[in-house]
Design brief:
35% of the residues lie in helices and 22% in strands. With 387 residues, the chain is α+β, with helices and mostly antiparallel strands. Strands 1, 2, 3, 4, 5, 6, 7, 8, 9 and 10 form a 10-stranded mixed β-sheet that branches. The protein has a 4-stranded mixed β-sheet with strand order 11-12-14-13, with no helix packed on it. Strand 9 and strand 10 form a beta hairpin. The longest helix is centred in the last third of the chain and has 22 residues.
Length: 387
Amino acid sequence: MIPAAHALRASLTLKLWSIERKSHIMASVADEGLALFAGLNASPKKSYFSKHSSRITHTQTTRFLAAWQDQVNGERLFPGNSFNLDFHSVPDCGEHPVIERHFVSARSRRQPSILVFMAQDADGRAFCYSTADLRKGEESEEIFNFISFWKRAHRRIPRHLVFDSRLTTYASLARLDTMHISFITLRRRSPALLKEIVLLPRSAWRTIELDVPTSKCRTPRAYEQTIRLAGRRFRQIYIQDLGHDEPRILLTNQHRVSTVKLVTRYAQRMLIENALSDAVRFFHMDALSSAVGLKIDFDMALLVIASSLYRLLTRRMHGYSNAQARQIFRDLIDMQANVTISDSEIQVSFHRRTHLPILLASGLLNKPIPVQWWEDRRLLLTIYQGP
């Protein structure tokens, strides 16, 4: 019987080592290093991984995420000042009758898929919440499930949310305003709104300058107005010349923040889209592990923790603060080393390679770290000096 903590670490190994599917663990089942990480003498086989998540409920998953955030609270990985929210459709190529059809952006079409909700801390740039198996009609309520989760875990509600137009409804925006939660979102471009934009005189627009040196569209035009939706007063901003053929319609309940700051902050929402792209390419988010959405829920929680661990690692690596997980893995983790195990210590000696100076400058080498699940043996990272 594998203890629960060891089983969890073994499952997390699949994400950290970019193993695409549970069945692919069979190619690495004899890898002593992967087993050592989990505190086992051998890695579990695919049948164990397939059955393990069958005993885990969504309530347990959210408690697991809350406990993880409590453990890394001192690292300031989740400052909680602002969050990026988004949906992602994990495509299914089977014919399971329970799976609903959702829009899959990578294929620009609707097809059977599992709808996943993700939340990312904008400052820490790490995923902090996930849930899967959302059914049609439940999407607009998921934003409030995240708010409830954050309040339980941190004893306060989120102060600022940024999301696109498809995440929730106008009634939910009014509800957020009533809760005094600031938000920035886009409004869908209806024919009536597009006609209104076209009929605006040129003198109504004003040019703003964005403090984004890398952007080619630093001087868009903007037009502001106050509107009422679902009984609440909101600020609506039309934006032209922002690198898109169609104008953008920004909607917010922040009435005192400058237009430049609002537009710049919404543009930073691309961070969660980049993180989702990295999750697909490195953590294999789209490799559907089951047709049962609740099992996908646990996989997404593992993805949240694995991506957070990579974000923590980038803080130590000079020049890698904005790097994605696959680049960190390729340059700094997937390297040759000698592993020596003694009664009191496990020593990992890295061989010379191009990016070794980054590890040397990180301050992680030659500092023994006690590891509880190794019977308190210490982990020591060093440089291989030869035979």
